Amino acid sequence: MLIREWLRRLPPDAADRFAAASPWPAAGTDRSGWPAQSADPATVSRAAAALSRDTADALRLIMVRFGSLPFEPDQYEAAASAAGLPAGIAARELERLRAAGIIFTVRKTWGDRLHFMASDALAAWLAALLPAEIRPLPGGRRSARPLQDYTEPFGMQLMQLLAELGKRGLAPSGTGGIQSRTAAAAAARLSFGPEALRPYEARFAPGGKEEPTLQLGLAAAVHLGLLDESDGRPAWRREALSAWLAMDAGRRERELLAFVTDRLAACDERFMHAAALLRGLEGGVWYPAAGIDAWLKRHVPAGAAHWRVWLETLAALGWMQTGVSPEGETVVRWLIEPREGAGTDCAAGAPIRFMPGAELAVPPDLDWRLRWELELLADKVQPGPMTGMRLSAASYVRWVENGRTAEEALALLEEAAGSPPPDELERSIRDWEATAGRIGFQEALLLVCDDKRIADRIAAEPPVAERLGERIGDRHFLVDRRHIAELRRRLAKAGVPARSGLPEADEQVRQTYPSVRDSGDADRARGRVSPEQPGDSAAVKAIRLLTGMQLTRYAPDLDIRLPAAGAASGAGRTQSASGSARMHAAAGADSGRMHAIRATGLPAHWFSAVRRVHPSTRREMVKRAIEIGAAVRIVREGAEMDILPERLEETDGGWRMLGRALDCPPDQSVRVALDGDSWSDMQLLLPEWIGGRK
Q1: Is 427 exposed, middle or buried (0-12, 13-18, 19+ CB in 10 A)?
Q2: Where is the segment annotated Disordered (predicted)?
Q3: Residue 235: phi, psi to the nearest 5?
């Protein structure tokens, strides 16, 4: 799930709360811009430098073991134990990561919890804490030979898909999906076929009416807010469409890259790490594939066997290429800039060129608002970086059917080219204006009688005959649609009422091709193109079209146990039960401490004082101390010892507690292993980091 999608499920002040937590202030994070900065590589790099060693270790563990997949508390505890991270420290650092919005949590109504890392933040944190030392080839863009021809980036493919839907209309079929011919024509505007999405079959809704390629395009459009639903029918969001077409090209592709990565790779353990790693590479330069292999084999060996599948998907979407260096080495490069703030984006503005025969040569960086209108006026005849488009009488009919005029066509061409169209092209448009679209077909309505006798009878009734048109054969009459209701009344009055159910609904009005030429629409909506909000009909449609990490049945959990003041340097130390703290606990005066004890769900007398306990209770106290990250105070051979238990082992004669003594610095800790029957008096010590629930 993407950060900004997740924030829409949280209270309005959630981003401010995250931004105020360590390490963001040290990174200079702007609270109002936290959602974007929390996945920005430069900001995350500064934040990573401010993390404590324990916090960084816990985050590395999560990224390597789970990536952007959700994980249960027990899974995290097991991973921490296997990595040698003490249970108490692991629990404490998870809470710190949650407080900073680096790890998020959801829960079911009965209490089950899942933690996860936002997929768009994973790339930035991997680059900061687990960097891949991969150097680009010297020589820049020309240092290798590409193995794939030019493919239009997915943003361009999506724009053409939407243009096809605009030309043909969004009227749904009888089964609720897009009409089959329209769907096929729209899918044909994509440069990749179903085979490119076969590795991700599980991500698509089973039994979908549209093929996966079209599902991906429609889900992307709904995610970006370009399509919505109105009265159960697909509908355009014109201002959002205008703003998207006016958007900087680099940002447009990066937002789509984040969406596709989240929906296809981030919820698949085969691809999630490779997807995040690749997004940390610089755009436009060649990198040795061996360096990517080496990083994956070191950190996530299972992902090393599959990352080239994800690379092929990125190539099909026009975002990456593979190549061969002069030494025969396999290399890869981005054709876009995947990193925010890299400074390589350029403004649109290259003009079209007029070619013979009413053809246009259209560059990829033409203002997309102009390209959108050209998609209606002309037909694409040649793919490539310089797209070939042709005007014809048929394409001009489509133009006028959608409310445009010859003057608007000429003005569009002049604006796109920076000069008036050639005289020959202008004459063609004027000729089409005089002839094209001047005739059309209309559907006739027939009144059908069961036999000739009934037909003769109604023809003999003067009031009825006045509303009948030409008689065709023995049983049929032409009927003017405008008179159908009056004719029904006259037939009933004449004693020959008509059956109900004859077609009399008006013809479905074709939805017009959205106009985006009003720059005010883009100005008003600029910066407001945003993913769907949970509960919207569009969100439901997007989930149906393309499934990702399904957390819709879970509620956000912001019940975070923030570290108490000074706990950051405690590295797992607990409150002393001696002195004033012990007195307050015994007297019940420290309400904050008592509130924290109640929050653990454990008996309060376990924390109150050292006391003799039953052997079975002794074992249970150690077990629960490990779960909440608490230390235990035991009396052994007359001496008190404070121990942070890390695990409980079964032995032939009973059980054993393994942990770390707390009466020494963390970096000089003494490991202990004590049999469960080697002490009888004990107490739990409440960790400082639990504090009161916020």
Answers
A1: exposed
A2: 495-537
A3: -145, 150
Residue type at 332 in one-letter notation: V
Alpha carbon 238 to its chain's center: 22
Residue 552 structure tokens: 């819709």
DSSP 8-state class, residue 421: P
d(CA 256, CA 617): 56
Sign, Cα dihedral of 660, 662, 663, 666: positive
Closest CA to 220 of 177, 312, 156, 168: 156
Q: Give me the residues paired with residue 334 across strands.
A: 283, 320
DSSP annotation of 101 reads T
Please confirm whether the linkage preceding 23 is cis (ω < 30° from 0). Answer: yes
- The C-alpha atoms of residue 165 and residue 185 are separated, in whole angstroms, by 8
- How many CA within 13 A on the CB side of residue 273? 28
Q: Would you tell me how many other CB atoms lie within 10 Å of the CB of residue 149?
A: 8
Q: What are phi and psi of 564, to 5 degrees?
A: -75, 165
Can you read off the two tokens belonging to residue 650?
Answer: 């079964």
Q: CA torsion 292→296→302→308, rounded to 10°?
A: -10
- Residues in the chain predicted with pLDDT less than 50, given as ranges, are 502-511, 519, 521-529, 533-535, 563-589, 691-694
pLDDT tens digit string along 25-57? 999 988 888 998 999 999 999 999 999 999 999
Let me know the angle formed at the C-alpha of 321 by 196 and 204, rounded to the nearest 5 degrees.
20
| Length of the chain in terms of residues written | 694
**pTM above 0.85?**
no
What the block records as the tokens of 656 is 């054993």
Alpha helices in 238-380 (DSSP H): 238-246, 249-260, 272-278, 289-299, 301-304, 307-316, 368-377
Looking at the DSSP assignment, which residues form a beta bridge with residue 227?
236
Lay out the sheet containing 445-448: strands in order across: 445-448, 476-479, 471-472
Question: Cα torsion for 95, 96, 100, 102, to the nearest 10°?
Answer: -70
411-451 confidence digits (pLDDT tens): 999 999 999 999 999 999 999 887 766 655 566 788 888 88
Rounded Cα distance, 629 and 627, in Å: 6
314: tokens are: 């990125």
**Cis peptide, bond prior to residue 351, ω within 30 of zero:** no
The CA-to-CA distance between both ends of the chain, in Å, stands at 25
CB 405 within 8 A of CB 278: no
Query: Alpha-carbon distance 694 to 692, whole Å?
Result: 6
Q: For the packed helices 537-545 and 212-223, what is the interaxial angle rounded to 10 degrees?
A: 150
H helices of 135-211, in order, are 154-168, 180-187
Q: Please report where in the chains the tokens 């454990």 appear, as a residue.
A: 602
> How many other CB atoms are there within 10 angstroms of residue 238's CB atom?
15
The amino acid occupying position 204 is F
What are residue 168's phi and psi, to 5 degrees? -95, -15
CB atoms within 10 A of CB 588: 11
Question: CA-CA distance, 76 to 369, in Å (whole number)?
Answer: 49
Q: Which two tokens stand for residue 316?
A: 């099909």
Which pair of tokens denotes residue 14?
């959630």
